[in-house]
Amino acid sequence: MDTTQLLKGVLDLAVLAVLRDEDGYGYDILRRLREAGLEEVGDASVYGTLRRLFAAGLLTTYVVPSESGPHRKYYSLNAAGRDQLARSGKLWRSFATTMDALLDERGAAA
Amino acid sequence: MTVTEQEIAEYVGRVRAALADLPAAVREELTEDLPEHLAEVAAEADGSLLDRLGAPEAYAAELRAAAGAPVRKGWNLDQRVAAVARRIGGGLHTVDARLGPPLGYASATDFLRLLRPAWWVLRAYLAAMLVTVVSTGGSLGLLPRFGGELLAGLVMLVGFLLASIWLGRRSARLRGWRRWALHASSLVLVVFGLAGLADAEERAGYYPYDPIAVNNPYEQIRDVFVYDSEGRLVQNARLFDQNGNPIRLGYPDCLDEQDPYNANPLLRPYPYCPAQAPFAPRAPVGPSVAPVLPPLSGPSGSATPEPTTTPEPTITPEPTVGTDPGATATATPTPGATR
């Protein structure tokens, strides 16, 4: 199964998750996702997801001036975002548990 | 840093173009941070944006999907018009290529292109005729006239010809409003030409060439009275055209039973009815000076002996003309006499 197919469903959750402990700017968030193991995630996908979450009111932004290089727009979770993260996280855990159980029962797990 | 702001601007521009079908507000919301974001991307590593992010169009598609924007399913009006125009253009191209071989050319356009100078000439003629109509107030012949002057019209035609050819040779380089003006004036001339053609066709259809005039000016004539220089009525006059053919006008409606010409009324000399002369004849100056037309050689040969008797019964009511018949009678024996 293609990882990008799975990513489509959980990218929102992944982006919210990497912003839980620390704010980040666009490329920073992409790097964290890739370092966490989601290597196939695309720049445009992350940027688009950030824009959508921002438009949905789950993120706030602030600009940090930089001496060397461009100004960076940081994204941070607001209350609605944390709430959304909690609900989506629970949903994912339950879904993942179901999938794990399904795979274990059939003995197909690696 | 190897990525310039110029490259970023170009990349953003192409992404926005690929999202052109989205409502402007949505597109703006999606891409308002894109230049800053791409600047970060560019600052993090080496290599061009194209190398690291792929084509802007692909980036736009991924962005669209991730942002949950509607996938490009319909076109806006501009794109639909462009698509229809493309399809029509393709169809015309096919027709163009299909029509070419029967004409002996690769395409119909190749053939039509050869006719362009002919159009330049026609265009000049139509323009001259348009000026003719405007300057003479509507009257239209086949040759241009300027204010009714044929020579001036021809000079104008030559001038228009040179101008039209000069314009035709450089019309491909015209741009903008000049091009539109040229097309518009061509359209005006074509419409004018078609109107003129329809007008000429109508006139030709209503009045086909016919040697018999509808309004014959001699229609109302019933009789002919010839007077000599002295004002005397000439009896037994005959009219001939330049070919020696007798001119027959009118019809003898004062029928006379004793008239020897009754058998063929057209052989009668003028006037048919001297009694109806519009001017009263004056008294003759001399008895034998009255001029006499030579009698017709052919038909009158048999008639010549007769006139002595015929005029007299008709004339008798008028005593004054009594001498005239006598004059004719005396003259008839000498047919060779010239007028």
From TrEMBL, chain A:
Gene3D superfamilies: Winged helix-like DNA-binding domain superfamily/Winged helix DNA-binding domain (1.10.10.10). Residues 15-86 form the Transcription regulator PadR N-terminal domain. It comes from the Bacteria. It holds the Pfam family PadR. This is PadR family transcriptional regulator. It comes from Micromonospora musae. The lineage of its organism: Bacteria, Bacillati, Actinomycetota, Actinomycetes, Micromonosporales.
TrEMBL record, chain B:
Residues 290-339 are annotated as: Disordered. Pfam families: HAAS. Keywords: Membrane, Transmembrane, Transmembrane helix. Residues 298-307, 317-339 have a biased composition (Low complexity). The chain crosses the membrane at residues 120-144, 150-168, 180-198. This is Uncharacterized membrane protein. It comes from Micromonospora avicenniae.
